[in-house]
Amino acid sequence: EVQLVESGGGLVQPGGSLRLSCAASGFTFDDYAMSWVRQAPGKGLEWVSTIYSDIRNTYYADSVKGRFTISPDNAKNTVYLQMNSLKSEDTAVYFCHTEVRRTKYWGQGTQVTVSS
Question: What pLDDT is stored for residue 68 in this prediction?
Fold first, then answer.
């Protein structure tokens, strides 16, 4: 059974940093792309970043480019999202996402609140 479990969210001041983690299980981690997607209050889902662990290609939304870094730890089946220079508009629930054999999987989400 594929499972994705996020952690690391919280309350942080503007300009601060957080590192989100997504622990994956039930599939061969480095065979599939892993993504972070967020949902701000009252808004739809917004794609944030994707990594292809086997070839280490990474992709970012323009809104986070240069501030966020996605990285894998294949030994731990975990993908991280390092978020620096956080802004109030980064406030959202952050979800980990993957698609395995044409089935989409989501974690339960972790809340990130950027506020002074």
Answer: 98
Instruction: Please state whether 101 falls in left (phi above 0), alpha (psi between -120 and 50) or beta.
Output: left
Q: Please name which of 19, 22, 20, 14 lies closest in space to residue 91, comparing C-alpha atoms.
A: 14
Collapsing DSSP states into helix, strand and coil, what is residue 44? coil
The 10s digit of each residue's pLDDT in 1-13 is: 999 999 999 999 9
Give CA separation, 99 vs 34, 51, 88, 110, in Å: 8, 12, 30, 19
**38 phi/psi in degrees, rounded to 5:** -130, 160
Give percent above pLDDT 70 in the chain.
100
109 by DSSP, 3-state: which?
coil
